[in-house]
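Example record

One chain of 299 residues, shown exactly as stored in the release files.
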Amino acid sequence: MGLGLRKDEHKSKARDWWALSPFHHEKTPSFHMGPGGLWYDFSIGEGGGAIELVQKLQSCNCFEAGKWLCKRGLAVCPSQPPYMNTVQHNTASQVRQTIKTRSSQPSQSETYENKPIRQDLIKLCTGHEILEQRGVSTDTCEQLGIGFLSQGRSPLKNRIVFQVADARVSSKSPETPSRVIISHIGRALDDGQEPKYLFYEGFHKSAELYAQEILWLHQEAENQAKSCGFLTLTEGTFDVARAFDAGLRNVVASFGASLTRVQAIKLKGFADHFGVTRVIIVFDRDEAGQRGAKRPKPF
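Predicted structure tokens for this chain:
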């Protein structure tokens, strides 16, 4: 399959074959691959799909693994998006039309800007087993500003805290944007802790995209957006964190299964800046995510 695997012809069958482990020397095959390219290496206790295999063999991230497979003809990345059903088509058309017909006099909500704050709750945060269970690394926590708040008087205490930031110019740096903190949000540790997400009063989540500062400030984000030709919009903060851990930088979240007019306009600004023409919306497959994809957006 182009990955240098040493197939064992005697033990293998059609669509179910074995190979010697590519991760160390062995005489008895312990690497198994079944239908769909799903693999498991019994000698190291790890498995996954084609992307995970290339990541481990090439010591690269998810984005680089996808490019590696496409360049060798082992995967296909279509230049045009796949067939969309009527609901998806109507939603996409509505977003495009909303942006296209935007009034020259923006509404008050569109001109509202969350002001930068000085407080940095992440300095008071620590790691937590939930972050480890979710596969969010320490490096990702440091770069995005994620941690567990176990002290202080903040209403976000005893929650997983996600820092909300942006890239803006200031009097100290009038020409070059820099990262500024505009709020923090707290995520419940379990279902019994309500609400699931807690926002500070006065913070307008509908005016922001989570990890938007990454798109502006990280060259890798620009390179990936231009290379694949699109940006990716997810629902939540954990979605972005997992994508970030996988090496993806052209991903932001809308703080829920909906997309506001202001957020759509921000996405349009990013798309114009990077010279891309598509935004792929990846909302959850649960009921809320499906409703969010189908209902008219609050523009």
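Notes: The first strand starts at residue 6 and ends at 13.
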